[in-house]
Design brief:
The structure is a single chain. Helices cover 33% and strands 20% of the residues. It is α/β, with parallel strands linked by helices. It has a single domain, classed as HybD-like (Rossmann fold), CATH 3.40.50.1450. α1 packs across α5 (131-151). 44% of the residues are buried.
């Protein structure tokens, strides 16, 4: 059985930055070795979780990449050098690079990782996604299912 961690990250109090958290909330139960967890702004918690790495880590977050708001991206960080600038995770001041650095410093290894991200309309102090980003949640869930089927198959 493949162990897959879908990690929703982002801040619910900053509008569209809560995209990853909302996707995980709506994702529901998936059979097999898939865990969907709302990490929100708890980057240190995610780093400790990765000390026992899953076979596949899928980060879900908001990302400014220059597309139209609501655009969904699937990013392979092993082949896309722009991903560190694109993903807006700021888990108490800890970027995804920072989370991964902490995992390595603690003796862990970074698992195979994919990022499902949505172009935000507005990251500002408010609760709730903008309508265009809210509509993208279901598309992201469908992409997650396809990604898990494709990438999560045992080698």
């Amino acid at each position: 059985m493949t162990d897959i961690l879908v990690a929703g990250i982002g801040n619910l109090f900053l509008g569209d930055d809560g995209f990853g958290v909302e996707v995980v909330r709506r994702f529901g139960k998936v059979p097999g070795g898939v865990r969907a967890v709302d990490f929100g702004v708890r980057g240190v918690h995610l780093a400790y979780e990765l000390l026992e790495p899953p076979d596949l880590l899928v980060l879900v977050d908001a990302a400014r990449r220059g597309g139209a708001p609501g655009t969904i991206y699937v990013i392979d960080p092993s082949t896309d050098p722009s991903w560190t600038r694109a993903v807006t995770c700021d888990a108490h001041g800890m970027s995804i690079d920072g989370i991964f650095a902490m995992v390595r410093e603690l003796g862990g290894a970074i698992p195979k990782t994919r990022i499902v991200a949505c172009e935000p309309l507005a990251i500002e102090e408010r609760i709730g996604l903008s309508p265009v980003v809210d509509r993208a949640v279901q598309a992201a869930i469908e992409i997650l299912h396809r990604l898990i089927d494709k990438e999560g198959a045992p080698a």
